[in-house]
Write a structure and sequence with these properties.
With 397 residues, the chain is mainly β. It has strands at 23-28, 43-48, 52-57, 62-66, 81-86, 90-95, 100-104, 117-122, 126-131, 136-140, 151-156, 160-165, 170-174, 189-194, 198-203, 208-212, 227-233, 247-252, 257-261, 276-281, 285-290, 311-313, 321-327, 331-339, 345-354, 357-363, 376-384, 387-395.
Length: 397
Amino acid sequence: MKRTWIVLVFLCIAIGLFAENGYLLAWGRNGYNQCVVPGGNDFAAVAAGGFSILALKTDGSLIAWGNNEYGQCNVPSGNNFAQIASGIAHCLALKTDGSLVWWGCYHNVYTPTGTNYTAIACAWEHCLALKTDGSILAWGDEDSMPAGNDFIAIAGGGWHSVALKSDGSLVAWGWNDYGQCNVPTGNDYVAIAAGGYHSVALRSNGTLVVWGANDYGQCNVPQGNDFVAIAAGGDDDGYLPEQGLSFSLALKSDGSVVAWGNNAWGQCNVPQRNDYVAISAGSNFSVALVTNNPSGIEDDSLSPVALSTISIYPNPFYTSTTISYALNKPSKYVELGIYNIRGQLVRKLVNEPLTSGQHTAIWDGKDDKGNTLATGMYLCRISSAGKQETHKMLLMK
């Protein structure tokens, strides 16, 4: 019998785009109250599991809720966590010192030692970690991994994995009965996600490519060239395949989300709004971070400010680029951040009150610690008073 599986984009995707001071919103199957999300706007990242959700708070601590049969909601203490990933019954977290923490699951697997990890991903019963040297480590039921040290992103599927290389090309390995490892050619890919029997990639021009099983339309790619993040999920317990095999989510630059594929539990019934900043796909439910309070109660400490269209020049750029924007009135709080394709905030350029009028910020291609970042697509997001704009930026070397 095939067990239930879950796959997310870590770039998450799993782990998707991440934001600071976001609210949680979930929809779809709610058998373990996983869609009853905690309140507050202090969430920085979210990862959907089989029937539970793991969230990272802005203070670096963790919280989880939903099914806890294998202890997947018994989060470790501390406030030094930087990334999260969630599988069917296990969770993985990356600490700020580059070490890993693992918990949950229904069989024993080890947690790799060391402090040389930069990204993580979970699948059904295996885990992936990206090392500082660009190589990949895999462990669990599917512990094969490709050779090389030029990888920049990873995603775990049901029984397959996908990786993005520094030259923009794709590699996939593992179970391939539905062609989910038959990656498309080209070297213009900037983000990846892996579903149970299908895989998704985002191209530098903002379009999507999907391959693998298509029995629920999960490979029927939505049109458009304004996508900035992706997620893939689904489940199959062998007895109730109609309950949700595969589906996908995509975040657009205007802050809206589209979903396609199996919708047996309403996991593709995305609430209509334009303030999404992160997405994650669970077994048969979806979860997201949004900038506005889903209850409709706004934070009156923010001024109602209109943002003009962001101008970024040059783009693509090699050493630095100038971000220009305008406010129609003074704002008590303006935030302008740079995010990588895994959704992590890598550089905060603005976080202060601003007067009305034209403003500029210069990004030199470095993170908050002064490290020069790798070639690839990054996202510039400016927000104020619940309004936001997101634009793609391409850093070249």
